[in-house]
Every structure is written in C-alpha cells, then in structure tokens.
Amino acid sequence: MNGRPFVSFVGAGPGDPELVTLKALRRLREADVVIHDRLIPAALLAEAPADAEIIDAGKAPGRHCMGQAQINWLLVDRARRRGRVVRLKGGDPAIFGRLAEEIDAVRAGGVDFEVVPGVTAATAAAARGGISLTARGHASMLVLATGSDHAGRGVAALDWELLARAEATLVFYMPMQGLDSITTALTAMGRDHREPALVVERAGTPDERVVAGRLGDIAARCREACVGAPALLLVGPTVDAASVPLAVRHLTAAQA
Ligand SMILES: C[S@@+](CC[C@H](N)C(=O)[O-])C[C@H]1O[C@@H](n2cnc3c(N)ncnc32)[C@H](O)[C@@H]1O
Asked: What is the pLDDT of residues 50-109, one digit of tens each?
C-alpha cells in the first residue's frame, strides 16, 4: 500500500481530455486505483501509472453496470487496501454526480477525502456556443436542473411555475427522454414558447452537435436530428442562436 487511505473525487470535465485541471492530472498520475464513470475522456485513464488498478463503474442510462452500494464499498475497500484512490467523475463531481452519497460512504469508513472540481457540461456547452449564461440584462440567475427523476425513467418533479417565471438561464441535465414534457410544462406555466432554446449533444467533444430553436419547437427539431444522450437543454434569452458562433450555426442549419 502506498501512503494513507485517501480518496480524491476528481472532475474529468465534459469529454475533451484538455478540459481538466492540473490537479486532476496530478492525482491521476499518483493514483493506486482509479474508479471511473462512463462519461469520461478515455485518454485520461492513460495518465494513471501502469500498475494502477482501473475499475469501470460506468452506468448507462436506465442500465446500472455497478450499483451505487458496490461503488461506495469499493471506494473504502480500495483506499484501505491500496492507498490513493481517484474517483473520476464526468464533468464536475458535485453536479448531478451522486457525490454526497459517496462522500457519506467514505466518511463512514473513516477515510479522508478531497474534491477536485471539473468543468461541468453546462459551462462546456456555453463555451462552445459563445454564450454568457448570466449575460447582464438578460439573466440574473442560472438554474441547473435535472430533467429526469432519480430512476432516470420519468421527468423530474420540479417547481415548473417557478422555472417558468424565473429571469434565468435554465439548463436541464438529462433532458432527452422528457424533452416534450419539459418544454410543455414550461410553456403551460407561462414561459414564452418563442424563447430561444438550444440542445447541445456531447458538448466539448469532437462529436458535439448543437440544435437551435425555440422553446416551442426544440423537441421536434431534436427528434428530426435524432439527438441523443448525453445532451443538455438550455433555455433563455442568453442562448439566442444569434450569439452562437458561425461554425455552430452552420451545423445547426444542417440539422434543422
Ligand atoms: C449524471 S449527469 C453528470 C453531470 C456531470 N457531473 C457534469 O457536471 O457535467 C449526466 C448528464 O450530464 C449531461 N452531460 C454530461 N456530459 C455531457 C456532455 N459532454 N455534453 C452534454 N451533456 C452532458 C447530460 O445531460 C448527461 O445525461
């Protein structure tokens, strides 16, 4: 065993291996064990030492490869037996990443830990589109919401009335299964169906696709373009397609 038991919860960013912190790279290079999610850049695993144990705990939507309880157990077990564990999570570990459950498990096991933040999908999608999520005069709030319930089967139970009237940029994670329901709930509660909306698939990767539209038609546009997970829905005046750089608009026009 190398050193004391320690778990680093590390943000792997949205998919581009260059969108990670120097601290993330350092932790990977010093790891005895890496336990990683499905949505992480594969190139990052090559940063781990050749003798590090690499464990794929990836979960596909609706199909759990490894249960949360098993991951929690592994974190404590490997930290005690091997030393430095890197728990590599897509985007930022603290955003829809089940970080709290894993921290609880590590704490209960008496193992020290740290969190190394990462670039979350929302900021990666905004960056690619040249979008300021809190553009002055357009949005005084940024809401990161989940589009699906805990089990990943239905739409999340959210305060749709509040979301409909918030002077905010709304970003929905995991929106694809319930895209029609989300956009209908927002317009039914009074949000303007002409409000700009974007869906960004695989933000921050070479396969990124952007579909631009309005709240009232974005779901249909995504169906036509066969957009799938992982993707984000962004809604609000800040995401007006006019502000999206030329390359992205060109891609969008081809999709529409
Ligand atoms: C379980 S959440 C994890 C979010 C992650 N912790 C983060 O900060 O980005 C998974 C969801 O994040 C979104 N997501 C993650 N990576 C993405 C990407 N590269 N492009 C678009 N959406 C992404 C999708 O909505 C996906 O279904």
From this structure: 999 999 998 555 555 788 999 999 999 999 999 999 999 999 999 999 999 999 999 999
pLDDT in tens, 174-229: 999 999 999 999 999 999 999 999 999 999 888 899 999 999 999 999 999 999 99
Residue ranges of domains in the chain: 6-116, 121-255
Catalytic residue among 23, 51, 56, 59: 59
Q: How many angstroms does the Cα of residue 120 sit away from the middle of ligand 1? A: 7
Tell the CATH topology of 121-255.
3.30.950
Strand partners, 196: 214
Please choose, from the candidates 20, 76, 82, 26, the residue with its C-alpha nearest in 3D space to the C-alpha of residue 52: 82
For domain 6-116, the CATH architecture is 3-Layer(aba) Sandwich (3.40)
* Model pTM score: 0.92
Q: Which of 1, 4, 77 is nearest to 35 (CA)?
A: 77
Q: CA angle, corner 207, sides to 201 and 211, nearest 5?
A: 40
Which residue, among 36, 71, 72, has the nearest Cα to 54 in the 3D structure? 36
Is 208's C-beta closer than 6 angstroms to any atom of ligand 1? no
Q: CA of 7: how far to CAs of 79, 80, 153, in Å?
A: 7, 10, 31
| Dist CA 15 CA 154 (whole Å) | 26
Which region, left, alpha or beta, applies to residue 211 given φ > 0 means left and ψ of -120 to 50 means alpha?
beta
